[in-house]
Amino acid sequence: MESKYTLPSKSPLKSIGSAVRNGIIPLKRKFQGPENSNGKMFKANGVSLAGGANNKTNGPQHPNQPTAKQITSKMQMEQQRQALPVTGCRKRLIQEIYKSDTLLIMGETGSGKTTQIPQFLLAAGLCNKGMIAVTQPRRVAAITVAKRVAQEQHSQLGETVGYTVRFEDCTSARTRIRFMTDGFLLREALADRLLRNYAVIMLDEAHERTVSTDVLFGIVKEAQRQRRLRSLLPLKVIVTSATMDIDHFGRYFGVKGMYLEGRTHPVRVMHAKESQSDYLHATLVTLFDIHRNTPSNHDVLIFLTGQEEIEAMAQQIRQIAKTNINNVASVRVFPLYAQLPQNKQLECFLPAPANARKIVLATNIAETSVTIPGVRCVIDSGFVKRRIYSPSTGLDVLRVVRISQAQSWQRCGRAGRDAPGTCYRTYTQEEMNAFEKMPKPEILRSNICSTVLQLLALGIDCKSFDFLDRPSPEAMETAYQKLESLGAVRNASTVPELTPLGRQMAQFPLDPQYSKLLLAAPQFSCMEEMLSLVAVLSGDNVFVSSVEKREHANLAHAKFHSKYGDHLTLLNVFSAFQKTEKIKLWCHDNFLNTRNLSYARDVRKQLLEVVERLALQINSCGNNYDQVRKCLLVGLFDNIAELQRDNFYMTITGRQRAKIHPSSVFHGKYRPEYIIFSEIVLTERNFLRQVTEISPEWVAEVVPHFTHLNRIKLSS
Ligand SMILES: Nc1ncnc2c1ncn2[C@@H]1O[C@H](COP(=O)(O)OP(=O)(O)OP(=O)(O)O)[C@@H](O)[C@H]1O
Fold first, then answer.
1. Residues 124, 80 share a domain
2. Where is the Helicase ATP-binding domain (predicted)?
């Protein structure tokens, strides 16, 4: 292993850009790290703590009194907090926030930005007249960080500290610090552009540049201005990251950035000496070298690109560990990707059993903000699956691409959270030098239909919106055209205006094409069915795949198969689930995911509330499933594909060649001539996911305005 890796020469932050050197106020800290923090005496819950060993009792003396174990862990947590670099700058930070309405803070990964700054604000009384919002690009980060901060506050989650993510709210009237996804705050802005619920908004992980965060930059800037003009409570905005382009942000917000010095624990970075042709193989070799040569309590986090890759590698690791490793600790493998049910995602955050090494195989959802306790080693494949919109094809596709340098450093920062760590990069230093510095902002590479619609609902034409990075005029034009074809906008090419239908579409927390399905459903007498289907499609995979019991799982799933395809199969599953009483047992027997189905049921309830508020007719088509299939066309008309002679499919919009995904009910059985799909995934092989057979005649009947109608061969 040693021969494969070299130590890097560059310091991470300096390699990100001139930001650190130019015009940034350095925030000097008092503490240099755990070794210098002399926090010997701490107070928690009125109990004076002078070291766990002095607490003689082990059990609770009073029901409300903490046990010795709890006291020790509270004390450790408090010590950890005191040792964080950000803690030494607390006073200075508070002074700065009183002086300035906007702060840009750049500090090393793990320095304590996300968990500590909101607590400083709380202690300083900055949220007496409004809450502190902390946005995160991903749900798993919002949830786990909220849990940690609630623990540090010694309060129940949902009390002083809570979180809200789409379709899930864990807050109460007493909540002062609210973690949330950026998408959720954006939806709140729809109801109140001045965001009056909040005294402070902290936009964390700004370097991620999701579409929602980019739009939020403009929204909060304007809310700040409006609140100042109207002499309302000033809105404080804090933008934080370890790897943002602070010069660029500084120019946009008109303020200087601050650089927070120091990191908690060092991370040794190792690069592959030579370019690796197979990063999966290199990852496995590295992992087992680590497994043989480091203590079993050094857990490992591996960054891969997606569900299939992760599941395949998890299998391989378990197999190798079972057969080839003698006299070394056992391994516990945890996958972590967005489609995994939430409870499964959170499993890797628990400590591994004694004498077992925890190995977490994650996508980029573990790249920012999260702390996975125990992780001392990170193996970075250097690849990520990214959603990219191609204006030329009009399709949103998923592609495996190289990560950016900023992502490399973020991944590296997942080691060294609770102890010194090591990051193994399966790519060379030279290869990394060629990576782009920052990932291209999502708004410049994805479909911005939703954004354009939401901004219009706020009365903003995105052509005049104050973007940090402006999408190209063509991308805006394409989005307006698509919204016009969905009937959400009129005068798309001149002075765009939201239609009444578009206003209704913006009420749903959904992509416009899915909102359109619900709005069209009454006309096809299938509202009940469409509510269920859209709810299931909004969540994660409801099918549980089992490598050991594959036959059983396939047989169980086959009961729900619809001859029309995957959408109606999903509907069959959900309908059966809704009729079931003992859902856990039923899901277990049928290899279905209880959590994801329960989530879909909750989503359905919320969608139903919007449907009722809009007074839409709630009807059902019974067994006449053609109605559902026709209705699907109303929103997904750009996702039609036609069977070719060589058994590939060709998408009508964008002319992409692809095969039906192996998870489809059609896979290996029957190839319908025309299909509609939910998603196209472009990897080394192109796949269409969730497909349903349609009749070509329906296209002219249901979406006569479909631009490529003439490409469809009508059989009659
Ligand atoms: N869930 C957790 N469990 C254990 N320790 C945690 C947890 N969350 C945070 N910590 C500790 O707090 C430290 C600071 O974490 P925090 O997320 O505030 O840092 P950060 O500066 O925001 O990092 P990043 O830029 O990577 O998001 C971590 O290094 C870790 O030691």
1. yes
2. 94-262
